[in-house]
């Protein structure tokens, strides 16, 4: 079971990045992008651990498979422990199904960590401590390219996780933005 795949020799296979990162710059942002083979949620938590509370989580449900409405589900303020509990509880869902993106924001450092439907992790407003974590992980500088063509696997066995996540936590829902659409 996986969320991002590609066709190799007429067979659908899981696509993994090769533990790389890059720093991207434009006129409107500077960000780090990370492509990992595994351990996405653990890495998000490690990158979050060096930031200051409170945190805010945005759960972007762009492709629901249940009767939940697509939208941007914004949390109230959260501690690091609360973020850790939530991410670990739904870890398999987040890492194996592409119906969503997760954003974690620390207002004090103005840092946002995004884990997207393509298994990429972005850091906006990153710090030197983030660079240190990335270097300690042994990630190499390189390109993070999504295979073309590629396949998203929406896994039916996670449908109940979608409903639990939406219904068991307090969220403020707003509509999807154009950039959230696939």
Number of helices: 5
Poorly predicted residue ranges? none
Strand order of the largest sheet: 10-3-4-9-8-7-5-6-12
DSSP, total strands: 12
Structural class: alpha+beta
- How is the main sheet built? 9 strands, mixed
Distance N to C terminus: 21 Å
Provide the succession of SSEs.
EEEEHEEHHEEEHEEHE
Cα-atom Rg, whole angstroms? 16 Å
- Percent of residues in β-strands: 25-35%
Helix percent reads 10-25%
Number of domains: 1
Principal-axes geometry comes out as: globular
Entry keywords:
single chain, 182 residues, alpha+beta, 9-stranded mixed sheet, 3-stranded antiparallel sheet, 25% helix, globular
Summarize the structure.
The protein has 182 residues and is an alpha+beta fold. The chain has five helices and twelve strands. It is globular, with a radius of gyration of 16 Å.
């Amino acid at each position: 079971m996986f969320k991002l795949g590609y066709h190799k020799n007429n067979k659908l296979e899981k696509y993994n990045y090769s533990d790389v990162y890059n720093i991207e710059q434009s006129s409107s942002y500077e960000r780090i992008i990370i492509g990992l083979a595994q351990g996405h949620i653990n890495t998000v938590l490690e990158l979050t651990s060096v930031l200051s509370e409170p945190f805010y989580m945005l759960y972007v449900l762009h492709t629901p498979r249940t009767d939940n409405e697509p939208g941007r589900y914004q949390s109230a303020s959260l501690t690091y422990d609360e973020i850790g509990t939530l991410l670990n509880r739904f870890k398999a869902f987040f890492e194996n199904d592409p119906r969503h993106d997760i954003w974690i924001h620390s207002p004090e450092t103005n840092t946002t960590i995004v884990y997207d439907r393509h298994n990429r992790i972005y850091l906006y407003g990153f710090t030197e401590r983030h660079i240190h974590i990335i270097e300690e992980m042994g990630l190499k500088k390189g390109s993070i390219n999504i295979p073309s063509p590629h396949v998203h696997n929406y896994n039916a066995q996670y449908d109940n996780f979608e409903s639990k996540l939406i219904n068991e936590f307090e969220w403020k829902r707003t509509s999807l933005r154009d950039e959230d659409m696939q």
